[in-house]
Design a protein that fits this description.
about 325 residues, alpha/beta, Rossmann fold, 2 domains, five-stranded parallel β-sheet, two-stranded antiparallel sheet, 7 strands, about 60% helix
């Protein structure tokens, strides 16, 4: 799972706090039972005393002491349970009430992360991904091909498969994708599908519109008090998605910042997915030959063409 050490420690502290609270509440219930159920306190004291006595015997070499102790404790525990039930308490009244019964609020089952901890991590990754809309109704299996025909359909099928392969090979192969083509042909949709798959598998994904990205890069460059956190998250997240490249105001800063971003993430072997409505020629002219050369050498180009599916969807129901 791709979290910083500080983020993971924060989650672990929350688990420790929940577990301590559950145990503390069970100890309070135990004191209540000892005070209100006749004979229960005495049975607890008897178990404590016998445990000390038999442990000493075992240390002294009495091999039968532990087996004998187990039998006695089992009998006394049955007596305690009988007293508890006779007094109207449920059998599990003294058990700690953990939020997760599988890991007992430790976050781990053996050496493996519990499903609840995995979900906590995924939830945190979603919260920092910059994806505000719901991804519940998005997925590769839900992406329809019915709006495409002929060459447009071939382009879409090829791009969809490259997107699926990108996700499947994400942990083993450094790769970048550039979705380009006309407006409304599914570039942002496929980017969102990639984001959802990787977030659900515990990878850190940050999703920016180009306008928002360059705004954050500007803050990171000129506001020194926040620059480290802003730039580091952009440079080092597992996947950076840049949507609608070319909608930002292009100037010397954005051109320079864009090259630096691509170069820095390439050095760190951190993938990028870019979507743009610009043609490849316009990309080269706008962001300089140096930047375009870097993109050409490290990105897989995925062309999408056809009608605006957002408009077509209104007429195909």
């Amino acid at each position: 799972m791709s979290l910083s050490n500080s983020q993971f420690e924060l989650i672990k502290r929350k688990y420790d706090s929940k577990r301590r609270e559950a145990i503390l509440e069970s100890e309070k219930r135990l004191e209540d039972v000892k005070q209100n159920v006749d004979g229960y306190h005495e049975l607890c004291d008897a178990i404590s005393g016998l445990t000390v006595e038999h442990t000493k015997r075992a240390i002294s070499g009495d091999k039968s002491a532990i087996e004998e102790l187990s039998s006695i404790i089992a009998d006394l525990s049955d007596q305690k349970l009988a007293l508890l039930k006779a007094s109207g308490y449920p059998e599990d009244y003294l058990e700690p009430r953990f939020e997760c019964k599988d890991c007992k609020d430790t976050g781990f089952i053996g050496n493996e992360r519990c499903h609840c901890l995995k979900q906590q991590i995924i939830d945190l990754l979603y919260s920092q991904s910059n994806i505000h809309e719901s991804l519940d109704a998005i997925g590769f299996d839900m992406v329809s091909e019915r709006y495409y025909k002929n060459e447009d359909l071939k382009h879409f099928i090829d791009t969809k498969q490259k997107s699926i392969n990108f996700v499947h090979n994400f942990d083993g192969t450094y790769q970048n994708l550039l979705f380009y083509g006309t407006v409304g042909t599914g570039k942002s949709l496929l980017s969102s599908c990639i984001a959802k798959e990787l977030l659900n598998s515990g990878h850190s994904v940050i999703y920016f519109s180009a306008i928002s990205l360059f705004d954050e890069l500007s803050k990171g460059t000129f506001d020194k008090t926040n620059s480290a956190n802003i730039l580091e998250s952009i440079y080092d997240c597992d996947l950076l998605i840049i949507d609608d490249l070319g909608t930002e105001m292009t100037n010397s800063f954005t051109v320079s910042a864009f090259f630096s971003l691509i170069n820095e993430r390439a050095l760190r072997q951190k993938p990028i997915v870019i979507s743009t409505n610009l043609s490849l020629e316009t990309l080269r002219d706008r962001y300089t030959d140096r930047t375009f050369s870097r993109i050409t050498g490290s990105f897989t180009f995925c062309r999408l063409s056809g009608p605006d599916i957002r408009i077509a969807h209104k007429f195909v129901q």
